[in-house]
Write a structure and sequence with these properties.
Order of helices and strands: HHHHHHHHHHHHHHH
Number of helices: 15
Largest sheet: none
Shape: globular
Strand content: under 5%
Radius of gyration: 24 Å
Structural class: mainly alpha
């Protein structure tokens, strides 16, 4: 009975793995193929391996500029989220008052507000302030990622003993030194969680960059892939361009490692006083 249950579990896990890997396999099969081959036999093996479609995709989506812009926006946004949310959460935990409680409830409740409800007022307000650009996009991401990150930091900081901070203050540390040299190194697990969640979301986001910098010459990777698809025409898709572009975007996401964030690099170098 136990063996049959074990085999059944292996079958279920194998089926789930195949379903998960199928889109990646399908993408790899058509990475080296022409438009005609993809349309005729999408699941067939490529007749010959050619990187000319990859080269064409790199040239048409302006890979270098798109990658640097996406990396810049993601890094700055995540750094902004970490700095503000961790500092605010620390102050709310250590200085308990009715105001801090109300602020925490407001930040937590704001996670329930859908983006579509504030999309047009937000874009209109930033446009009137002259921030419908890359800096404005970074500020928007910082605001949208603040609530969840502050909630995570707040829960973790409550488990940190106050005696550690008091010992640092007795040794002559200022509040700023306590924050950077005591609190931030202890927040590494939560910081990694915040970086992964926000970094993947910002890297793959399409709607907000489209609304803010969709008309600019330099675009993010997701926008570049989308506009490359539009160039295919109204009644067809250039799959020999889309498949390499999508694969490149997936591979480049690995370069946006959580350890590349300046906040994490700095926290690794800090030691408690």
């Amino acid at each position: 009975m136990r063996k049959s249950n074990t085999y059944f579990r292996y079958v279920i896990v194998t089926v789930m793995a195949l379903v998960t890997l199928f889109p990646i396999v399908f993408l790899l099969l058509n990475f080296f193929r022409s438009q005609t081959e993809i349309v005729k036999q999408p699941m067939a093996l490529p007749e010959h391996f050619s990187f000319k479609y990859l080269q064409s995709a790199i040239e048409r989506i302006d890979l270098g500029s798109s990658f640097l812009l996406t990396l810049l926006i993601t890094s700055l946004s995540v750094a902004l989220i970490i700095r503000i949310s961790s500092g605010a959460a620390w102050m709310m935990v250590r200085f308990k008052s009715k105001i801090s409680t109300v602020l925490l409830l407001l930040f937590t409740a704001s996670m329930l507000i859908p983006f579509q409800a504030i999309m047009y007022p937000l874009i209109s307000m930033f446009d009137n302030m002259g921030l419908k650009n890359v800096p404005g996009l970074v500020i928007m991401y910082g605001g949208f990622g603040l609530s969840m990150s502050l909630f995570l930091y707040h829960g973790f900081i409550k488990s940190i003993p106050v005696s550690l901070e008091e010992a640092a203050i007795i040794d002559g540390a200022s509040p700023v030194q306590v924050y950077f040299k005591v609190i931030m190194p202890l927040l590494k697990p939560t910081t990694m969680t915040v970086i992964i969640l926000n970094g993947m979301w910002i890297w793959n986001d399409y709607l907000l960059p489209f609304l803010v910098i969709g008309n600019s010459e330099i675009k993010t990777l997701t926008l570049s892939v989308y506009f490359a698809k539009l160039e295919s025409g109204q009644y067809g898709n250039s799959w020999d361009l889309i498949f390499p572009a999508v694969l490149i975007t997936m591979l480049l996401q690995g370069f946006d490692s959580p350890l590349s964030s300046p906040c994490v690099r700095r926290s690794h170098s800090l030691q408690p006083v």
